[in-house]
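[Discussion] Sanity-checking designs against the backbone

I'm trying to build intuition for which residues belong where. Below is a structure token string of 107 positions. I'd appreciate it if someone posts a full sequence so I can compare it with mine line by line.
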């Protein structure tokens, strides 16, 4: 089992999640983070830390977000590890809970 970052992280990327991960399994892209499913130890610490409520246990990912399970796995192989909190983008609050952010995912 792993945890999965889903759509509401896109363009928010608050990074509070990386601060609590004991195994540094978050990877960072231009405007989104993913979890490496092969490194995640299923500790659940990150889930309540995300202000965007973007992190789910793999078996609780909503139906319309299922593609993020494969996206986390794929992008964790190509994006670098992030282990320290960063300042979010200045407009991160404006993008919080905006629907339809999938189209803005940058690789
Ligand atoms: Fe890291 Fe634990 Fe979250 Fe997995 S569940 S990404 S190990 S904090
Ligand atoms: Fe994204 Fe939430 Fe982490 S917005 S960077 S999953 S704290």
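Best answer:
Here's mine. Compare freely.
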């Amino acid at each position: 089992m792993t945890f999965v970052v889903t759509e509401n992280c896109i363009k928010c990327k608050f990074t509070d999640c990386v601060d609590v991960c004991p195994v540094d399994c978050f990877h960072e892209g231009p405007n989104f983070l993913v979890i490496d499913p092969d490194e995640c130890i299923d500790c659940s610490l990150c889930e309540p830390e995300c202000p965007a409520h973007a992190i789910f246990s793999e078996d609780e990912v909503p139906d319309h977000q299922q593609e993020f399970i494969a996206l986390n796995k794929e992008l964790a192989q190509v994006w670098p590890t992030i282990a320290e909190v960063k300042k979010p983008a200045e407009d991160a609050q404006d993008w919080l809970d905006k629907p339809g952010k999938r189209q803005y995912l940058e690789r």
